[in-house]
Amino acid sequence: MHALTLPEPGHHDEMLLSSGAVRSHYQHFANWLQAQPPEMLARKREEANQLFHRVGITFAVYGDDSGAERLIPFDTIPRVIPAAEWRQLEAGLAQRVRALNAFLDDIYHDHQIIKAGRIPAEQVFANAQYQPLMQGISLPDGIWAHITGVDLIRHADGSYYVLEDNLRVPSGVSYMLENRKMMMRLFPELFARHAIAPVDHYPTLLLATLRQASRQENPTVVVLTPGQHNSAYFEHAFLAQQMGVELVEGRDLFVRDDHVYMRTTAGHKRIDVIYRRIDDAFLDPLAFRPDSMLGVPGLMHAYRQGNVVLTNAIGTGVADDKSIYPYVPEMIRFYLGEEPILHNVETFQCRNPSELDHVLANLDKLVVKEVHGAGGYGMLVGPAASRAEIEDFRARLLATPANYIAQPTLCLSSCPTFVESGIAPRHIDLRPFVLSSGRETTMVAGGLTRVALKEGSLVVNSSQGGGTKDTWVLED
């Protein structure tokens, strides 16, 4: 028998009510869990670790002098979402991504939202992620972000909120797929008892989305990786293999007569769609950083001529910048004429003097983030910070206030998690992956659930010690 620790007061737990009663959509799983001997989960976790090592599901941490690759810790207790709840999330995610694509197409063309005074011009044109050379470029169907990862959290009130949008090179989908495969291998009996929506067709949906991005009749698609030293290289190789397309590095490609070609043992082959996992600045040394060895000289010119599709498009980063995030609800109203289904977290923009004053007066209560930051780096979690850390951030804010935003410290929902002390609640978030083509917006049910394994921690990023769970969306 497994004793389930009661959730903290004032927190939303995915599995348990505050009384300790099990939520209805978790009941079958809880019954199964209570019937398992205590040593079973430990044995299964060790089996999962060995299998993940064998397959090579690892990631590297930048700045780690040891250079060692690590496993992302995998938890065997799933996060379960009922069907009706997912339908609401799905509608909100599709709405949000449609508005973000409309915004990107607008700011690189007519600037209607800026002319209407809904977003300050300097927030867009002075943004480091804005790419002036994309101005006036028309992309097929006006789609700039074909793959979007949207980070969701559930607050103490039980409502979901969007924490951030990831439109540049969103990662993590390979872990979603491998987590499901692992759960089905370890616990096949659970999938016989539950009607769980599948996720294994994601590579098929992704390939269809990439092909639909091209105007060619039978386009050739490749995945462009920076190479095996990149922290997400496993994912790049995994997705290429799952889609049945070539994994290439910049040196495998060249541009001739404004078209992109791949070197193969059978000769040169024209490439129509590049699913790139390289940041803008490194894509073409002739257009961006001249010292980049990762990109393809001349790629930007071929792209501007419409002879190759890059997914996601160059310049999408301006829409996932944390200083643009507060305006997404207004984008939904402006472009779609709808009220947002999913809400933002209240956000203070430190570039505004009055909001900066509020942040400085409440640093011990807020989470402060760099507007270009990612991976849990460059942030302050006020309630967990030392006095020295708070004062260090105070100095940073006073020096460059426009580089930061701040948000209330939210009570991320918790989910029972198997840790060294047994089964205990740990905080989680959710990253669904939304695919956009000119025809439709699609996604597999669920996404990547990340879990903060340290007790009380709100930082779920793998680079900061977080783990992952399988995400079950129950079918009706």
Automatic annotation (TrEMBL):
Q: Which InterPro entries match?
A: ATP-dep_Glu-Cys_Ligase-2 (IPR051680), CP_ATPgrasp_2 (IPR025841), UCP005522 (IPR016450)
Which residue range or ranges hold the Circularly permuted ATP-grasp type domain? 78-452
Tree of life domain? Bacteria
Q: Which residues form the signal peptide?
A: none
Against Pfam families, the record matches this protein to: CP_ATPgrasp_2
Protein name per UniProt? Circularly permuted type 2 ATP-grasp protein
